[in-house]
Structure formats: structure tokens, C-alpha cells
Predict the structure of Heme-binding protein soul4.
Amino acid sequence: MRSATLCDPQRFKLCGAFVVSAAPQSLSVTLVRMALISIEDLAGLDDEQVDDDITDSAEPMDEEEEDRMYAHWQAVGRTHHVSVPREMRGPIQEMTRRNQTSEREPVPSVTVSRHEKLGEVLYEERVYPAGKWACVSKADTLYEQSISNAFMKLMRFICKENSTGRYLGMTVPVVNEITMAEDGTNFMKDVLTAYYLPAEFQARPPEPTDPDIRIVHRDAIRVIARVFNGTTTEETISRQISILWELLGSSEDVLQDRYMVAVYENPGVPQRRNEIWFIRRGS
């Protein structure tokens, strides 16, 4: 199933760490699957068979080191049914070096309420303020292909392929929007991936050189967030949606056709932190 979408300012409201359709039509997006090539994968290269002498160095890699790293990511790409183009060599090197010296900036938010049981946080409600985001919409044959190709585009944008010619810095979480199919159980194929611009670039966002990337300013939005750890497959996301609905009970002011998956850590981390987000109506 496929429904074409664009990250258009007239059609989307992107706040916090995701994009919400402002048009009557449903935005069709898919979810993150396990083992994808993403900004987080590349940021975690030190855990992905890369020697310490590469990741700890602030100096550019020599040709042999660069070839070895690129060959590694080609192998990773084949397992995800995507090709890692040669133009990714530079961004892979840049992100690997920067990951050792640069802090990852959190997307700003305000916690409105927290719901606990026996000392365990079941879920919390947050408001994400207005801000500027870079987003990419993809609808490839496989979920893995759409997410991987979208992230590679955003990575090139972060790693100097922008009007400033500068490395922009990493923010977390990177969030993907999923939209339910008409049957209410399966996910639509289209993928929309959003990267929050660091505070330094909020007032004057750099322009992407890639026409597939759109910079949009979005209003504030309110979400209900529940943390879960581990992989982000269709099965695990569906389970987390069911769990949060069970905790909330019936709630007419929460959307039931769109959800968000927020990713905070490198997929190489076995019990990495993720969140499922429900969207309050009227946000």
C-alpha cells in the first residue's frame, strides 16, 4: 500500500520531533525497522567494528582507513537491501569523527504530567514547542529502504551539504511518523523522517542542497510518550501501541491513525531507548 506525500508547509505541522498532517487526508508513513542505516547507526560506528584509533582521532582518515570503513558500511547496506553510494564516504567519516567530540543536543520539550505505578513511569505527557525541522519523505519498496535512504539524505545535509558548508551537529531524538492503513492493524509504506535543527540554526536555517529535504517551521504539539527498550520492528511497535492504549483506556482526544516512534540511541545498543508517541487532538 502506498500513498505519496511531501513535506510541505501547507500540509504538515511539525513540532517536537515529528510531523503531523494538517490536511484532511491521512499522511502515509511507515515505521523504523530493526537494523537500519541511520544517523544513529553512523554515530555509533565505534560500536560497529571500527577501531579506537579511527574514532578517537580528530584528523581526517587516510585513504586505507576510509576504504575499510566504506566497505564495512557497504556490507551493512546489503543486509538492509540498500546500496550505500560512494558519496556517503565523506559523511560517514565526518560523523564518526564528530561523534567523539560533539554533544548531541536534545530536542526541547516541557513535561506536563507523569503517570507512575509502584515507582515505574508508565507514560508522561509533554509539549514540544514550535521549531524548524528538516524532513524527508520516502516510499521505497521496503520499509528498510525508505528509512535508510531518508537517513542518508539527512546525514549528508548535517555533514556540510548545506548552504553554510558546515557540520550542523546531531540532535535527538530523530523521529519517524507511522500512519495506520484502513484495516487499522497494518502500517502504510510512506516514511517521513524528521531531524530537529540545532538551536544555533533555528533563527537562520541552512538551505539543503538536496531538493528532497524540506526545512519547515511547525507549531507546538502535545504528545503522550511511553519509553520502551530494544528493537523497533513492526511487531514491537504494534505491541507498544497496544500497551499504551490499554494504559490510557478510551480517549477521544488522541489520534488513532497516526503514531510517532522516537529513537534516542544507536541500534547497536541491545536495550536502547525508544519511545512511542500518541498525539493529542488539536495540537
